[in-house]
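Interim report to the steering committee. The following record documents the input for Inositol-1-monophosphatase (272 residues).
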Amino acid sequence: MIDFIGQLAVAAGNLAEEGRRSLAAEDIRCKASSADLVTAVDRRVEEFISAEIRGRYPGHGLFGEETGSSGDTAEHCWIIDPIDGTTSFVHGFPYYSVSIALRHRGRMVAGAVYAPMLRELFTAEAGAGARLNGRPIRVSECGELRNALLATGFGCVRARMRPDNFEFLPEITRSVRDIRRCGSAALDLCNVAAGRFDGYWEFALQLYDIAAGALILAEAGGRVTDTSGGAAWPENGLAATNSRLHPALLECFRKNRRISGQTLCVAPPAGG
């Protein structure tokens, strides 16, 4: 199974990269705003992935960012983000990825994230660890926020939801070594899994953004919760760390909410 998912992610990534090199202005359109892009390549890649899965597993359900759900209540359901980081993709910034996960009876059991321009393939199976280009990976040993490099994103800002991430930045920025914002939730999670980042947080994500990456991180020894430490992610935000930093990162959220009286933002419905 994991070989199929990995090979499919690479094939889809190669198709995306081929499309990027010939991308024209008329192939790009906006969704909710000028910052929320989709291209003809997104749909083409998702259709390719879906066709390959249907050909091999005709009884399985599908849930994709661009085409929505089909049989997603089946025991097995594939969760697909054909291009996670479409703005990066359009601008030729290499931080975009293809994300494919398999859910069985509500539990993620396998996943792959492929970054075509970086030629990095992250894979994981439940209970079998995580790998980068076939080699085992593990989260960092960083145990103090002051020494940590974190990643984040600003989906809440684009969705005009509150609280938005700018309201948490001062508290977290003062607490850590530095912060990066690269534009692909799937890759951010994978880079925590590989020990490059020590943690990652974001709001207003959808399941297809993070399904594969969250499994890869968990299998590499990391921890994923909502920003209150619960299991309501991504609906109530996402906090992902190397495990050791998790209590300290959650405390940043608690402290900020006590001061401002904020409540959690809830992601818009899938497909919005």
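The mean pLDDT is 90. The committee is asked to note this result when reviewing the revised timeline.
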